[in-house]
Amino acid sequence: MSRVAIYDTTLRDGSQGEGVNFSLQDKLLLTRRLDEIGVDYIEGGYPLSNPKDFEYFQAVRELPLTRAKVCAFGMTRRKNAPAETDTCLKALLDAKTPVVTIVGKTWDFHVTDVLGTTLDENLKMIADSVAYCKSQGREVFYDAEHFFDGYRANPEYALQTLRAAATAGASAVVLCDTNGGTMPERIAEVVSAVRRELSCDVGIHCHNDCELAVANSLAAVRSGATQVQGTMNGIGERCGNVDLVSVIANLALKYGYGVLKPGSLERLTETSRYVYELANMNFRNGQPFVGQSAFAHKGGMHTHAVAKDPTTYEHIRPEAVGNERRILVSELSGHSTILTKTTKYQVSHDKALMTKILNAVQDLEHAGYEFEAAEASFDLLVKKATGLYKPWFERLAYRVNIEAGTDGAPTTEATVKVRVGDGVQHTVSEGDGPVNAIDGALRKALVPLFPRLNDMQLVDYKVRVVNSKEGTAARVRVVIESRDGTDVWGTVGVSENVIEASWLALCDSIEYKLFKDAEQGPSK
Fold first, then answer.
1. 331 falls in which pLDDT band (50, 70, 90)?
2. How confident is the model over 33-71, as pLDDT tens digits?
3. Measured between alpha carbons, how far is residue 290 from residues 39, 48, 68, 240, 460 in Å?
4. What is the extent of the structural domain holding 402?
5. What average pLDDT is seen over the chain?
6. What is the total count of domains within the chain?
7. I need a surface site. Which of 152, 167, 322, 470 has the fewest CB within 10 A?
8. β-pairing, 488-495 with 476-483?
9. How confident is the model at residue 131 (pLDDT cuts 50, 70, 90)?
10. What is the reported pLDDT for 524?
11. Cβ neighbours of 324 (radius 10 Å)
């Protein structure tokens, strides 16, 4: 089985994406996680770029990495200056990484009009930089920036830049589609041409401006590239880099290439979501292989077929990449969907009950509810229909008060009254807004009685107008996403009043947590 090396540049190229900012601790945590799944190379950044990257290269030496080689990234030497005194190359060597990645100009237009030097001097800059770092005991990769544009404009000169790097000792030259505008067939053609010219390894580095980065990377590998550079989840500048998640899954599952280390494919979903968390970004539900919707089935005909044999509507087993199948409940659902979703309640023999649940779902969706992202609310609905629902607390009353303070900034206070058993809890809390204040008051009332609620936190809150023609009197749907140390769940509430809709969704979320904990038994 042929092997393809995975080169992750999430910490450098990925951090150039809009709104992405990794702390030093984030970078170290992600380095360890990528090493654990068997990524071959991790590009830590440019040591001369900022103090954080400088500190990273000092701190990463203390990490007990078992597989990955950390790479320092930088540019060729300055024009008309010796490599031995170049500050950038000195910083690369001072980073003390086993691999140095040097980026240079390949496109003659960039050499003359951006770099402001001659074509011959640029070749010397490439060769001198690679040779000097190689002489200092480093493995050197050469990133050929704008290679495909340069090859289109002046193929002979573009190849000369690669030869300069390879002859000077680069173990791999990486062809960069920096502007992300090249088509897959052209990628394949050019990579094949380069492989005929060079004896060193060839890599590929694609950007996603035409949404072809994955296709282009796969085309490059099929044409002889043995290294793929990219980022987890495809984060990066403009439209992003190639998504290594999809590249890894396709190479391994569709083409049979060796990637990562054995058993790591099952950790792809976990790793993808870990990166989203570190970057403080929302999951991309429709992301292939690892998204929450990647193996979600909604239509009754689909769910019926999947219940018989998942291969009817799934191209791989979700477990192969650490994901899971989801059967969505909606007004499109049939009895087979309800049957699948209620398996744990063992009520499949009761067709009348199945119909009752289905009718309840359809009636609620007609009123504005949606359960695709609120499976916890659906679980509570089933408990009520089957007679298994016993409320943990009774909602008696709530009040929210918003006032403008002396400085003009609003202050929010919520009062909540609930009955638990024979006692009534009456609590008050301030918050950043109505939902935060209600959540705080509910927790004050319930946490002393149910301490495991401390493990739960609200992580997302969405509001959608259901019947916009009604204007300010329209119903709104609130979906809340919550999580604890092991699970993520969604709940929904609908009302003409956004506070009431939020209250309904929030109470469902807390009740689901209490039911879940009771079913799992006492905490360890």
1. very low
2. 999 999 999 999 999 878 889 999 999 999 999 999 999
3. 18, 35, 23, 18, 19
4. 393-449
5. 89
6. 3
7. 470
8. antiparallel
9. very high
10. 45
11. 11
